[in-house]
Amino acid sequence: MTAAGTTPGQVGTRRFRRPRGLSAHVFLIVAVLISVFPFVWTIIMATNTTQDIYKSPPKLTFGSHLLENIRHMLKTIDFFGSMLNTIVVASVTTVLVLFVDSLAAFAFAKFDFPGRRVLFAALLGFMMLPLQLGILPQFILVSKIGWVGTLSALVPPALANAFGIFWLRQYIQSGVPDELLDAARIDGAGFFRQYWNITLPMIKPGLSFLAIYAFVNAWNDYIWPLVVLTKPGHVTLQVALAQLNVAHNTDYSMVMAGVLMASVPMLVVFSIFARGFIAGATEGAVQGS
Questions:
Q1: Residues 74-87: pLDDT tens digits?
Q2: SS in 3 state form for 35-74?
Q3: Of 211, 214, 208, nearest to 281 (Cα)?
Q4: Residue 116: closest CA among 164, 156, 165
Q5: Which of 102, 199, 272, 280 has the fewest CB within 10 Å, making it most exposed?
């Protein structure tokens, strides 16, 4: 006997789908736990002492030494000064990356100009090169400009981001109809008006993702600020946190307290821009269904 309106085949299909749905949920739960564990472990280390961290087996419960570790860290480095420097650099870099990369991506995606394919192929080639290869020429250029030791030297190298241009170019190609731009041209819209009034509002999810990517990269950048920032008062947060590591007897609980506090602005930025990215992706999924 089967329920009214159902066939034996439909009942079998439902029974087949339930194990698949259960296994998918179990996999997602395990993936979430694995992803969250490093952050939880950071909190555990920041709230305990270094002696607790060295215990075998290690202590896996939260301690009561967080405020003590934070006070010790604040006495060792200029945390808030370096954080302010990093916020300024990361914010300015993110805004300029969104503008420069989206403008270049729009030109690559919707306009045919001489050498477009060659330039785009060269852009893809630059994505394959390690960033360390550009440190020496960047330092020479910055020294000739007179920016060595200043925060201004951190912004220009990150502007023409190869991944950002590639990402937005693919997004614009699929998300901005050519017919809409043709209609705008007939109405007299020029290149910049097509970019600003038509293209940008339609690629907000892609811009949200790139904003998160650019901000996190600028926030976590360590090698280039370490090389070019020669003044102690102008160091960024990652360079300041590295000063907590000493050759002998490193206080890892103090280091983790600094790392924990340094993670807060990134979580705020992610919560702001992730809404736009997820909303856009959901909207596209609903429209495509």
A1: 999 999 999 999 99
A2: HHHHHHHHHHHHHCCHHHHCCCCCCCCCCCCHHHHHHHHH
A3: 208
A4: 165
A5: 272
